[in-house]
User: Fold this.
Amino acid sequence: MKKVLLTALAAASITVASAQNSAVNSAILNHKNGTLDKAQADIDQAIEHKKTKEKAKTWFYRGVIYQDMIGNPIYGKLTNDQTPLVVLESFDKAVELDGKDGEFGKQVPERKQMLYGQVLNQAVEFHNQQDWDNAIEKYELAHKVSPTDTTAVLYAAYASTADQNYPQAIKFYDTLLDMGHKTEDVYKAKVQLMQASEATDEEVMKTLSAGLKEHPNSVYLMQEELKYYLKNDRADEAMAKLDNAIAADPKNASLYAVKGNLLERKNDLKGATEAYKKAIEADPNNFDAYYNLGVMKYNEGTEVNNKAAKMDYATYQKKGKALEAEAKKYYEESLPYFEKALEIQPKDQATMQNLLKVYTRLNRKADADRINKMLSSNE
Assistant:
């Protein structure tokens, strides 16, 4: 009698387990047949039962079924904002139970990559609609799905910036830096956002310093750092830093160009000219050096010309023509620098605008008309 009872209990146990396993199998079959609502009901039942809730197969197919409902024209209405989180939780649990090399665990990376694409596409749709809150929420979820991918974080920073939520944008850029995505553009964007928010000079300079460690040749970062040194009466420190950098890398044209800019700010035009010319010696195609030399010469000419313009008639009759001739000399000296700058960067608007002014000053109408047409075509 005892033997019969034990056999009956064993049979009952097998029946219960089989019933629950059949719920998983039924979910898989319904998924295969495309009846995702029935598959969802089956897998929800299996995920709650003690016999199947600790099986990797159950969790994997829960993730698959819920994932395939996202965006489905029929069953997508059964999903909500939490569905991607359910999918992510399911796949993570499958790997936990099965290991990354198990039958189901090894299928998870491809499925997660698919989920990342789904969520990112949703984020982009919200982004295009300028629905910044939902876009950022989806970008954050995409990052959670794929923590090593930088795209979602970068676009979250863009969305936050567009929403003028600068502190949030800065946090996203900090996340990128923590991920090792230390591009010059990231540092540049962070600095600009800090400048537009309530960051202190010290905080901005700390970011600039970190950026320059990664990108020692960044003209933008160097120039911004110099601005803060000058703003805080630390010009000598700025020059010392530059001179040390030049001593370590004497063929670096960017360093000479930045030095020229600093000397120009200190009104040392002779020293600035020498520095810019050294930049050109180091790099014959250094746009900044040519452009800045052109601006310096043009400004000198304008300064002289303004003196003549302010003279009374009697004084002008005596000295005006000589000053205008001197001014013209400066304009002529600026011309080759601007022309070379435009040759290096043929679409630079500022260079074209300055060339138009110089040609006009020198009564070179044909050249002025040519530049004017170039400007119009680039608008």
